[in-house]
Amino acid sequence: MNNKTVLLMALLLALMPSLAMAESARDNYHTYCIQCHGMQGNGMGVNIRDMSVQPRDHTDTKTMSGRSDDELFKVIKEGGLSISKSVLMPPWGGTFTDNEIHDLVKYLRTLCKCKYGG
Amino acid sequence: MSEVICKAIHGDRFSGLFSRDFAWEHGVMCRLSIFFVAAISCLFSPPLHAGETGKSILNSRCVSCHNLKGPAPVTLAALWKRKGPDLFYAGNKYKHDWLVSWLQKPERIRPAGMFYRDHIKPGPKHDVVDASTLKPHVSLNKRDATAVADALMTFKANSNLVASEKLIPAPTPIGEMMFDKIYGCMACHQIEPGYGGMSGSEAYTAGKRLQASFMLSYIKNPQAWDPKIWMPNKHVPADNIQQLVNYLIDLSKEDFSDEQ
Questions:
Q1: Which of B81, B117, B118, B126 is most worth mutating to test chain A (most A CB atoms within 10 A of its CB)?
Q2: DSSP 3-state assignment of B196?
Q3: Low-confidence ranges of chain B (pLDDT < 50)
Q4: What local confidence, expressed as pLDDT, does residue A12 receive?
């Protein structure tokens, strides 16, 4: 076994846990996001009754098309304050990998049936 | 009834003998037998469930809903199957006296159940808890509750996560503001019965239920305890975690009995 093979195997082993734990965007959304954004993604989650700021309606095409993919990535990873929005949107960087957040952004685009600026 | 019990004791030796002449004498003998057996049972036999240790109760009655050995779920599929809180680190999480009391009279701690998604439905204004899907927790008698609590306190996984955590008791004049406005914890946790979020556990009983070192550690990094939990890491500075935990402890001392 040469050095290249050993290195390749080490790299694969290092990547395996993250690959194994990658979850689909839909599953992540329906585990973490719906508690506030609602089972239907309409911002009407089970937690909202006593909230001072209502969660974003992800099915709102007009509002969601005003947010770029980068902004959506940032607000998921770093929380509402990172884009001058509510603290009630927490940072999920400790829960999702960057790849999972990118997938979530794509999933949000399917919910709003929209793209940035369009 | 005597005949049934008597048959259970004597077998069928006397079946057919319950004639009028025999009945009285046999009835007396039978009742004496029953009394004798009961007396012996009381004197020498253990009470119901005696011999069961706390761990044996956990392994026979609790294991179907609670993870006693770890590890915590590392996939969503495993997370979704969880029916009750993981208990393999219970000795580093719960307060013993609270466990003894709660196990005798269990009341729901998570308004929307263990995994909120399994217990919600769309409502007229927003999603609501579907109470019909929530099941009560089994209750134990005092002896069993104490035995189980004793056993749970020996479950010390994740001791490394609490080893360096120490609460410095202090007044928390802005504790509620911090919990509600600065960190938004109230989005998921109730700070009094019926006020706050539904997907997390009650905040207003946390100080009674949980060890301070656990709260300090869990707020610092929930995923260190439970990698897939739906409580995010809000990167709260250590000083502010101290304030939040002091607030939770103060909050748990308030009397909410009129609001329940």
A1: B126
A2: strand
A3: 1-24, 26, 28-30, 32, 34-48
A4: 54
A71 exposed, middle or buried (CB, 10 Å; 0-12, 13-18, 19+)? middle
Nearest to B199 among A21, A27, A47 (CB): A47
- The β-bridge partners of B211 are none
Residue at token pair 């701690």: B109
Set of chain B residues whose Cβ sits within 8 Å of the Cβ of A52: 181
Q: How much is the pLDDT for B258?
A: 73
- pLDDT at position A14: 52
The domain segmentation of chain B, as residue ranges, is 2-44, 54-259
Contacting residues of A for B188, CB less than 8 Å apart: 35, 47
Identify the pLDDT of residue B257.
82
Task: Mark the ranges of chain A whose per-residue pLDDT is less than 50.
Answer: 16-20
Q: Provide CB contacts within 8 A for A51, sequence distance 6+.
A: A36, A88, B187, B197
Which residue(s) pair with A71 in the sheet? none
- Which domains, ranges and CATH numbers included, belong to chain A? 24-112 (1.10.760.10)
Q: Residue A49 and residue B126: Cβ atoms within 8 Å?
A: yes
For B184, the closest chain A residue by CA position comes to A88
The per-residue pLDDT for B52 is 86
- Tell me, what's the pLDDT at A8? 60
Distance from CA of A112 to the nearest CA of B (A): 19
Cα A59 from Cα B144, distance rounded (Å): 51
* Nearest residue to B134 via CA among B115, B156, B158: B115
Q: Cβ separation of A31 and B196 shorter than 8 Å?
A: no
